[in-house]
Design brief:
Length: 213
């Protein structure tokens, strides 16, 4: 996953590379530990996180986690849906983070991992509003440091949206001109500062996902 608070939150994400007792069958972990830094994101004013979100991907070794995951609040146990690539599709609220637990249906000896990052709220599609993506990058650039907390010094400032799974893309500018998107690590990418006056980002097929890098 490109940037995703990555280089520093990779270290912070070691909190999420949970060894056996942490996220295991019939074992629970505090939601704040399972979803590290989510509380800091949710504490940002709503107007400062209206274009980007935190993303959590659970995995078993190099494979996405497919085991069931629950949010446990007292006697209430609510399934947490996962996408095929392990992305958590429903994150806890700030209130739930303070009291809830997380349980995963795997053997107690299983080692689980998690990757965290920042993504635009815009859904991947063949035609996207460049201004919405630019707003996501701008908000993430400000919010990433606050989310990282004491690790802020190690967090690179996000500058781009990387279109994972797409190697060819096109940007359309306000004057009607078009240009091919550059590549970052083999994927098409859009850096708002390098492509001013961009209006639309287009692909023949939707990217698999969007990463703020």
């Amino acid at each position: 996953m490109p940037h995703r608070l990555r280089l520093s939150l990779a270290a912070a994400a070691l909190v999420l590379v949970l060894a056996a007792p942490a996220l295991a069958a019939n074992k629970v972990v505090d939601a704040t530990k399972a979803f590290g830094h989510l509380d800091a994101y949710l504490k940002l004013p709503a107007a400062e996180r209206s274009h980007f979100t935190m993303a959590f991907y659970l995995h078993l070794g190099s494979r996405p986690l497919t085991a069931p995951v629950w949010l446990v609040e007292g006697e209430r146990k609510t399934p947490i849906p996962l996408r095929a690539d392990g992305k958590v599709l429903r994150l806890p609220t700030l209130a739930q983070l303070g009291a809830a637990k997380v349980e995963v249906g795997v053997d107690a000896a299983t080692r689980l991992g998690a990757s965290i990052g920042l993504e635009p709220l815009v859904a991947p599609s063949t035609d996207m509003d460049a201004r919405e993506l630019a707003a996501a990058v701008a908000q993430a650039a400000r919010g990433a440091k606050q989310i990282a907390g004491v690790m802020a010094f190690a967090v690179p400032t996000p500058t781009s949206v990387v279109f994972v799974g797409a190697t060819v893309g096109e940007v359309e500018f306000a004057d009607g001109k078009r240009a091919a998107l550059p590549l970052i690590k083999g994927a098409a990418a859009y850096a708002p500062a390098s492509l001013p006056n961009a209006l639309r980002i287009r692909f023949a097929r939707p990217p698999l996902k969007l990463d703020i890098d």
